[in-house]
Amino acid sequence: MSSLAEALLSCRQVSRYFGSLAAVKDVSLDVMPGEVLGIGGPNGAGKSTLFDVITGLVPASAGSISFAGRSISGKGADEICHAGVARTFQLNAAFEHLSVQENIEVAAHFGSTARIFPGFRVAASARAAAAESLETVGLIGKSAQRAGALPVFDRKLLMIAGAIVTKPKILFLDEPVGGLNRDEIDLIQALIERLRTSGMTIVVIEHVMRFLLTLSSRVIIMHHGEIIFEGLPGQVAEDRTVVDIYLGQGAAQRLRAHFSDTQHA
């Protein structure tokens, strides 16, 4: 566990209960500046709920969270976003009847600064930021299309564009390659690597383990709301608890072979 002084984000004994169910239980973790932290685990392990708690969608039942040296415990999602935390969701959320460009302009307008007055007028700076974000993810050529008409891959890119237009210090990606084919997965991986190279810190949830382990500098595996593994990507398939609970022997063998091939390439 890294020291609090060095960490960009720190969670200490964070829990979230729904009635008597502990969706997240006593989770402590640090996220270091510039790293890609991968989070895996079975369905219902508490991964997305942990994202919800950190990003302010639901409050923690216990524990503390700090970001960039300041407490964000109990803060709302808008305040946490304005502090430099952005995220995507499992479902491809968008304003269906707005254009691709208009969707990102809305994110640029509301995602970077608190708006005291409810009026909506997009500034030239927000338009420019939206265009830059769409260029980054490869959607600039589709900026006039209606968001609801986009295929799944482009909707994934749209969500990422909406998150990065707020200029976050840390980006949370919830299953960014779910439902995509191999070529599309490779394109998302290349995009995330470019974002990391630009200085963005990234935390990603994903079930596609080859993608997650190849991309991440460090990996956490959750089960029943708790962290059962934390270590390097190459160690995941060697952990007996992870293999028994999550991967299974077949997937573990394929991942071992993948890392062996990578080391000998």
From TrEMBL:
<dbReference type="GO" id="GO:0005524">
    <property type="term" value="F:ATP binding"/>
</dbReference>
<dbReference type="InterPro" id="IPR003439">
    <property type="entry name" value="ABC_transporter-like_ATP-bd"/>
</dbReference>
<keyword id="KW-0813">Transport</keyword>
<dbReference type="InterPro" id="IPR003593">
    <property type="entry name" value="AAA+_ATPase"/>
</dbReference>
<dbReference type="InterPro" id="IPR027417">
    <property type="entry name" value="P-loop_NTPase"/>
</dbReference>
<protein>
    <submittedName>
        <fullName>ABC transporter ATP-binding protein</fullName>
    </submittedName>
</protein>
<dbReference type="GO" id="GO:0005886">
    <property type="term" value="C:plasma membrane"/>
</dbReference>
<keyword id="KW-0547">Nucleotide-binding</keyword>
<dbReference type="GO" id="GO:0016887">
    <property type="term" value="F:ATP hydrolysis activity"/>
</dbReference>
<keyword id="KW-0067">ATP-binding</keyword>
<feature type="domain" description="ABC transporter">
    <location>
        <begin position="9"/>
        <end position="249"/>
    </location>
</feature>
<dbReference type="InterPro" id="IPR051120">
    <property type="entry name" value="ABC_AA/LPS_Transport"/>
</dbReference>
<dbReference type="Pfam" id="PF00005">
    <property type="entry name" value="ABC_tran"/>
</dbReference>
